[in-house]
Amino acid sequence: MPSKPAKFQIVWLQGITCNGNTHSFLNDPLLGSLLDKVRFLYHPILPSQMSLRELVVKIPKSDLLIVEGAYRGDFERGGAVMEKLLPALAARAKNIVALGSCASFGGIFKEASPESISGIVYDKSEATGPLAAMREKVINLGGCPAHPEWLSFVIGMMLNKRKVALDELGRPKELYAYTVHNGCLRNDYFEWKVDSRSFGTKEGCLYYEQGCQGPFTHGSCNKILWNGVASKTRAGTPCFGCTEPTFPKTDLFRTKTYMSIPSEMPLGVPKRSYLALAGAAKSFHIKRLEERLIDDHS
Amino acid sequence: MARPSKEERKVSIMTKALELFSKEGFYQTTMPSIAEKIGMSVGNLYNYFASKETLAKELILYIANMLGEEIRRINESPLDTREKIVAIVHMYFKIAQERPETIEYFLRVYLSNREVFREGCEGMICVSAFVTELMIFFEEGGRSGELRDQDFFSAFGLFMGYLGGMVFLNGERILPNALESYEASIAENIYNALKAR
Lengths: 298, 197
Hints:
The complex is a heterodimer. By secondary structure, chain A is α/β, with parallel strands linked by helices.
């Protein structure tokens, strides 16, 4: 009788992390069927074959090494320093995923020690991390946290031996070629330059006054919804730009302006053209966009 | 002699109409009076412009584009913000002296007869080329730290209100001296009012 094909073996290694990506992954509605196809040699929470101590001692081969959390050379896992552990596991992995903004670019933890903390390939947008030399086999899934379906998409592509097309920062184009602005339900307000009056409402664009980074952040948050139902902008919160190497920005709820003109233009739009368009759009007063969508008093 | 092209005829109509509108105002100027000035039949004039309102809108677009082009050249020059203010004041007064009908039209027809421009020229649509360049000027001045950050229209009103006011006074022959003699002090005043403290 032919033996069953070997399961796809995954090692999930944590650097400096808040566990956000692990928790995000546990919310993947298709996690059950995915777990039928893969085997975790090591995962900090899910049942796995090895303990952390065994992982560190054995340094097993794997089909995929997932790294969650930021990198610092002297940070220890299972008694081993990351400086030695990460390259050793990476060398024996067929594929590598930097999961979340910390592993991808340094993220929030980098703020604590900018000189010694980075992502595994990228330090912000500079490819100077510990795995820079093997960047060809690393896929970056920026996000704080990364959407669970972004990870299961990548694993699915690997299971089906499909090549994942990447952008210049190693992110899958299928997931990051869009901006968060794409698919935002507030685009009607964006087009006609109608501001949101406050957080948490359905009306108005959050870009002009509330610091929304959607027009210049790569991500599919408004196409692959969170928990299948929402995104920050749909819920009335500005996008924080968490998939980008520039994350975290400070002053998240304020749009930086010069002379009341936004300092950053939507991606790929020249300032002069944007201002001409915006000026024309602002000339119109469109009643349906200036009123509450659902009036509680009517 | 070759007959003028339709486009050339259009420009010549606009030039004459601009003179009449800026002198007589929008309502005093009629399509027959424009036709007479050009030496064209009224019927033929309507072949070029469907109505007096259409002609008036084309004129403001033409002027805004012309002024926008001038300011764009200054914006793209290597001057610092203070020098750009001097250049914009100089450019504006020079046009007011050499082609007074353009600025007069802006002030006396476009700004004074808003009802004519309500449809098709809503808000800033017909003067977009001009306003956009001033936005770029202010934004870059604010970004470089040379100008104090403030609401765009507060700065725009100060700048253009001052220039428009001086041209208006000049047109009314109220100013005791030639317009260009005020250039340096006006540019200095504008810079002092807008600069970062």
